């Protein structure tokens, strides 16, 4: 979580970061009592990563992709803290999602509900593994059609809400105008009731009650 904003989603991790995390977890299981020398451990991980084949790295690449999807998904629902970066216009055209993105968005909530207590790393790994083992991907077309329909409905609702928003702004402007008018009328009435005079460097005020030395 970001410092100062506990609600901000956890940042996305790279393939190498997931590899290091896996190595650290494996080391803890094998040697729970042994303290890790961070510099030495990092060096060994780096050397091991360089010698790994593309096939060995692929599972970490898939996990990183899934975690990116997770991060993007959570950031959509995240509203930055006061004074933070301004949110994008929700009515702006969205980039069409990939089949993998749709797959993750469909199955990620199910994975979390059927596996209570599952770690963020495992939630990110699972969709990638399921996607790689998936032979029939025709249902992705149906998911995409559903997504496009939802987007169309959302845009229609957004336009309607936008109209309501404009009406709300108009009401606020009218209220501000009326408040300003009332203030002007009050000042005008006070000016009629009170006369300011300067005499021999002394300020005298005349109101309905008579002369008052200020």
From TrEMBL:
<dbReference type="InterPro" id="IPR036910">
    <property type="entry name" value="HMG_box_dom_sf"/>
</dbReference>
<feature type="compositionally biased region" description="Basic residues">
    <location>
        <begin position="171"/>
        <end position="190"/>
    </location>
</feature>
<keyword id="KW-0677">Repeat</keyword>
<dbReference type="GO" id="GO:0005634">
    <property type="term" value="C:nucleus"/>
</dbReference>
<dbReference type="InterPro" id="IPR017967">
    <property type="entry name" value="HMG_boxA_CS"/>
</dbReference>
<protein>
    <recommendedName>
        <fullName>High mobility group protein B3</fullName>
    </recommendedName>
</protein>
<keyword id="KW-0158">Chromosome</keyword>
<dbReference type="Pfam" id="PF00505">
    <property type="entry name" value="HMG_box"/>
</dbReference>
<dbReference type="Pfam" id="PF09011">
    <property type="entry name" value="HMG_box_2"/>
</dbReference>
<keyword id="KW-0805">Transcription regulation</keyword>
<keyword id="KW-0804">Transcription</keyword>
<dbReference type="InterPro" id="IPR050342">
    <property type="entry name" value="HMGB"/>
</dbReference>
<dbReference type="GO" id="GO:0003677">
    <property type="term" value="F:DNA binding"/>
</dbReference>
<keyword id="KW-0399">Innate immunity</keyword>
<comment type="similarity">
    <text>Belongs to the HMGB family.</text>
</comment>
<dbReference type="GO" id="GO:0005694">
    <property type="term" value="C:chromosome"/>
</dbReference>
<feature type="DNA-binding region" description="HMG box">
    <location>
        <begin position="9"/>
        <end position="79"/>
    </location>
</feature>
<dbReference type="GO" id="GO:0005737">
    <property type="term" value="C:cytoplasm"/>
</dbReference>
<dbReference type="GO" id="GO:0045087">
    <property type="term" value="P:innate immune response"/>
</dbReference>
<keyword id="KW-0963">Cytoplasm</keyword>
<keyword id="KW-1015">Disulfide bond</keyword>
<dbReference type="InterPro" id="IPR009071">
    <property type="entry name" value="HMG_box_dom"/>
</dbReference>
<feature type="domain" description="HMG box">
    <location>
        <begin position="93"/>
        <end position="157"/>
    </location>
</feature>
<feature type="region of interest" description="Disordered">
    <location>
        <begin position="171"/>
        <end position="192"/>
    </location>
</feature>
<keyword id="KW-0558">Oxidation</keyword>
<keyword id="KW-0539">Nucleus</keyword>
<comment type="function">
    <text>Multifunctional protein with various roles in different cellular compartments. May act in a redox sensitive manner. Associates with chromatin and binds DNA with a preference for non-canonical DNA structures such as single-stranded DNA. Can bend DNA and enhance DNA flexibility by looping thus providing a mechanism to promote activities on various gene promoters. Proposed to be involved in the innate immune response to nucleic acids by acting as a cytoplasmic promiscuous immunogenic DNA/RNA sensor. Negatively regulates B-cell and myeloid cell differentiation.</text>
</comment>
<keyword id="KW-0391">Immunity</keyword>
<keyword id="KW-0238">DNA-binding</keyword>
<feature type="DNA-binding region" description="HMG box">
    <location>
        <begin position="93"/>
        <end position="157"/>
    </location>
</feature>
<feature type="domain" description="HMG box">
    <location>
        <begin position="9"/>
        <end position="79"/>
    </location>
</feature>
């Amino acid at each position: 979580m970001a410092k100062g904003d506990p609600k901000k989603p956890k940042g996305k991790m790279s393939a190498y970061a997931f590899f290091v995390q896996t190595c650290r977890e494996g080391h803890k299981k094998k040697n729970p009592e042994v303290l890790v020398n961070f510099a030495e451990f990092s060096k060994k991980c780096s050397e091991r990563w360089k010698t790994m084949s593309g096939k060995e790295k692929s599972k970490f690449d898939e996990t990183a992709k899934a975690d990116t999807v997770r991060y993007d998904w959570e950031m959509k629902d995240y509203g930055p803290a006061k004074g933070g970066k301004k949110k994008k216009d929700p009515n702006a055209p969205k980039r069409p999602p990939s089949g993998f993105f749709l797959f993750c968005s469909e199955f990620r909530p199910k994975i979390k509900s059927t596996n209570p207590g599952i770690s963020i790393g495992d939630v990110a790994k699972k969709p990638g593994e399921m996607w790689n083992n998936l032979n029939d991907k025709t249902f992705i077309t149906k998911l995409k059609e559903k997504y496009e329909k939802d987007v169309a409905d959302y845009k229609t609702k957004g336009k309607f809400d936008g109209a309501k928003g404009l009406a709300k702004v108009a009401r606020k402007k009218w209220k501000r105008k009326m408040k300003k008018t009332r203030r002007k009328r009050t000042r005008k009435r006070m000016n009629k009731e009170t006369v300011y005079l300067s005499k021999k460097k002394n300020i005298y005020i005349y109101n309905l009650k008579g002369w008052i030395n200020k």
